[in-house]
Amino acid sequence: MALQAAALVPSAFSVPKEAKPSASFKDSCLFGVSLSDHVKPEFTSAGLRCKREFGLRTGAVRAQTTATTTPSVTKSAPEGKKTLRKGSVIITGASSGLGLATAKALAETGKWDVILACRDFLKAERAAKSAGMSKENYTIMHLDLASLDSVRQFVDNFRRSGRPLDVLVCNAAVYQPTAKEPSFTAEGFELSVGTNHLGHFLLSRLLLEDLKKSDYPSKRLIIVGSITGNTNTLAGNVPPKANLGDLRGLSGGLSGLNTSPMIDGGSFDGAKAYKDSKVCNMLTMQEFHRQFHEETGITFASLYPGCIATTGLFREHIPLFRLLFPPFQKYITKGFVSEEESGKRLAQVVSDPSLTKSGVYWSWNKDSASFENQLSPEASDADKARKVWEISEKLVGLA
Ligand code: NDP
Ligand code: PMR
What we know:
Layout: H1 2-8, H2 23-26, E1 29-30, E2 33-34, H3 35-38, H4 45-58, E3 87-92, H5 97-108, E4 112-118, H6 121-130, E5 138-142, H7 148-160, E6 167-170, H8 191-213, E7 220-224, H9 248-252, H10 270-296, E8 299-303, H11 319-333, H12 339-351, E9 360-364, E10 370-373, H13 382-395
Parallel strand pairs: 3-4, 3-6, 4-5, 6-7, 7-8, 8-9
Antiparallel strand pairs: 1-2, 9-10
Helix pairs in contact: 5-12, 7-8, 8-10, 10-13
């Protein structure tokens, strides 16, 4: 159905990356969704409210339209602060796609010790080699985010290695758009939310202690978000839309036994579960910012790196989708970004001295200049962020 819809989109239709739709597109319908009802320009009351709230939280007014031309990732520490050692960065899911491209971009600078936190050690080793990464710039450590035991084990192993932790990048994800039935993590959570959100939630909560100890000039915790979790965008209005509802499924443990495997308590939908997990990722980043930025000085950030339509994320999609999705994104939505370019973008969020602002959701415009983007009302709902945090704490055994 999605493919049929894709084929129906007129080729003249062009929307800049995560931008507002053009006036001519605004009033059209997609999958029966009236976009003008959902995709609001920035000056709507919802947009303003959201912006005002965030401005108050961060103590600054966001300039969504002001893009900073992005400096190169090879720049080192902020002026006046000389880095005497390499930075130490953990990237989850660095065996392919965005994670691998980011690891490569950082390793190439020679200024980072990159820890590839991966579930498949051999795949990661082969990927790092074929990306041309030099041995002295990376280490592979085993991490399966679909097992909380593995997450705890990873943290132990990392600490035993004696390395400092300067930046943590929560990048790994699974996407099951064609699954008819849910699958589950080792602890029995629906797999997409269990891996993408709960696994990373435990990992980042535990490693916060390590980040706090870092003496690096800029310490950062980055959680990869997405446009498709943001219903203030066109892409976020492609059904099924993200919606965490009243969190009844999450509270119930997402086990699918006597409770729903979906956060909102609905019936299983793999594509929605992924988008919901991305909303959780973006909410978690903001809750971290609210609770810990002032006290620790750590920069908490999320981002939408662009549509990297060629990655392994779509491995479970039907072959025809995988064939048509890249040209659709390249020539029709114009949201396409190569793996290499997306890796440079995420590497900037890791290392660029000008991207130290905390609580920000970064995006890039057509010229690959970064800008602070606006999250949807749900993805910036402070109350929901706190509730997701509290329920997640219980589910992963931290409360
Ligand atoms: P890939 O599938 O290429 O990369 C995902 C990575 O996550 C792989 O390395 C995979 O490991 C790893 N992973 C999956 N499950 C686990 C697990 N249980 N434990 C540890 N690692 C795991 O996809 P992308 O590079 O596209 O995705 C990276 C991030 O970018 C995700 O957070 C995604 O949501 C986000 N994103 C992607 C977009 C896109 O257009 N592709 C757009 C917006 C955001 P393995 O190699 O072993 O399978
Ligand atoms: Mg989407 C501005 C338009 C835009 C952008 C930037 C994306 C990104 N997509 C856009 C538009 C559309 N998409 C339209 C108009 C359609 C209907 C034809 C459409 C469809 C579509 C499908 C079926 N798009 C998809 C899918 C997926 O299965 C992908 C997905 O939702 O994964 C969760 C996806 C994506 N579109 C994107 C991006 C970035 C994705 C995938 C990855 C992600 O969000 O993590």
